[in-house]
Amino acid sequence: xxxxxxxxxxxxxxxxxxxxxxxxxxxxxxxxxxxxxxxxxxxxxxxxxxxxxxxxxxxxxxxxxxxxxxxxxxxxxxxxxxxxxxxxxxxxxxxxxxxxxxxxxxxxxxxxxxxxxxxxxxxxxxxxxxxxxxxxxxxxxxxxxxxxxxxxxxxxxxxxxxxxxxxxxxxxxxxxxxxxxxxxxxxxxxxxxxxxxxxxxxxxxx
Amino acid sequence: xxxxxxxxxxxxxxxxxxxxxxxxxxxxxxxxxxxxxxxxxxxxxxxxxxxxxxxxxxxxxxxxxxxxxxxxxxxxxxxxxxxxxxxxxxxxxxxxxxxxxxxxxxxxxxxxxxxxxxxxxxxxxxxxxxxxxxxxxxxxxxxxxxxxxxxxxxxxxxxxxxxxxxxxxxxxxxxxxxxxxxxxxxxxxxxxxxxxxxxxxxxxxxxxxxxxxxxxxxxxxxxxxxxxxxxxxxxxxxxxxxxxxxxxxxxxxxxxxxxxxxxxxxxxxxxxxxxxxxxxxxxxxxxxxxxxxxxxxxxxxxxxxxxxxxxxxxxxxxxxxxxxxxxxxxxxxxxxxxxxxxxxxxxxxxxxxxxxxxxxxxxxxxxxxxxxxxxxxxxxxxxxxxxxxxxxxxxxxxxxxxxxxxxxxxxxxxxxxxxxxxxxxxxxxxxxxxxxxxxxxxxxxxxxxxxxxxxxxxxxxxxxxxxxxxx
Lengths: 206, 471
Known about the structure:
The complex is a heterodimer of chains A (206) and B (471). Chain A has 206 residues and is α/β, with parallel strands linked by helices.
């Protein structure tokens, strides 16, 4: 799995609350395999009108922010549907980190599995950071996962992330490899569990 | 004496295989439901050259992309057809039982699992779908996961998780006639917020919860994700056991009684502590509808939509303006003055037999003023509804009676609400574009959707139930 350590990049403000995964990647694109096409349809229905014309005022459509790697977003980012392709769409569009006051739990979990950072920052700090990057976009933002800091110029904020996600991102642990190393314990659990909970096995249908 | 435990703690510890120093816990998975959207996970598994670890605990169900009309013909859109056939191919290659298109048991995964008795108390259940929380109605620990985690479960039958905080929502009192599980769910979401239960597993308890049927409990647990919760759970009781006994995959005879005895311990100990407690009184809950673009934009039907001009918080005022603008509703408008263009009765939230009965009780002998689609939660529910004559009531009211699938809740099989149209819907999400680009969704109970249908606008179902059995 890809590691996440430290990132210095342009940050694009998207200070809308409740940008759910249906908006991040509308359901009609869920048939697509993982591909760069997902990046092109990121936030499609907010970015474009029904005829496909871009809304020039939408921050990610502004030429300066097209290659932003960081999003500064509103509360409850990525709530709703469990679609991991929402994270793929952000990733394929070049984004590696979203900073927001809160995230949908499943989105946050999916982020970690893709080496993508969902950094939780208090709402007041998000508003300050969002206003700062909107007013002066040239100054880059540095996100440091080891230190759990977000710095811009001489201003620094402390963000939170659960320690398990932090560990996995810093180390780039692969879950399946990790689980393999617990093979004996899984086998022992399974054997004991069949004795303890015989009813947990699905019966033959009938 | 061991420490008092919540139901959530008991379910968690029964599945704990190992715990790392950082707190990550490896959990055993008892049931894994996969659907067409799980193709990404099967691809990940194949890339690693791996096989499904426990095909006997994995069940495939075709629901997200299946057509609800014209099943005697081939699916016209080849990209949609490919989604259905890819699931069939993956299930067959991995020797997974499949409830596919054409199977008499086919339906929405969160309806079929319980209906077939695959979902049982005390199980840990996952599926690549956020509404997996539905199965918590049985006292199962059930939650939605993304494609990478689906792949991990396929390959190992286990999952690494962080233990969530524990919340209890106690709903006391008794819900009035015309007020159902959906109204209770929306009242809870309005209270805690669409992200209010983030990071929490939620136990629902109290007299108004235990009074619910299994269908009602499923509706409530289904919607726990709309409050941001990791999962919802209700302690199993006699209502649960009665529902389960005799279903196809449920233990039979003495094995059932032994199981029920074990399941009876799945309750929160009286002294157990929760990280957060919320209380509501069901007597004060009126029928509720949503007006905006998140499920917590929910109000009793006798209210009016907010007026951003009266909102002092500028960020909140902007949110209200944007939501009303998307929904095409004037600030301060009375909810019952909002005209609708169509209705939808369906989805894993509200398309079980009890839901169809509740809608039919309002619609019987009446005509819908708008077109609408009724898609039963499963093919089994469809047959039962037809035996009860409910399909005739829907058809006579002018509504379309269709086959079972996720249909117009997520709109990816082609059943969508046209852009700009307003739909009264029994579904779970009023997000922008959820039912199709530009679609405007109002969430409510099946009875309230029926009331909106015959009124042509959002309406209070209670007066329309006068002299009728509410189903």
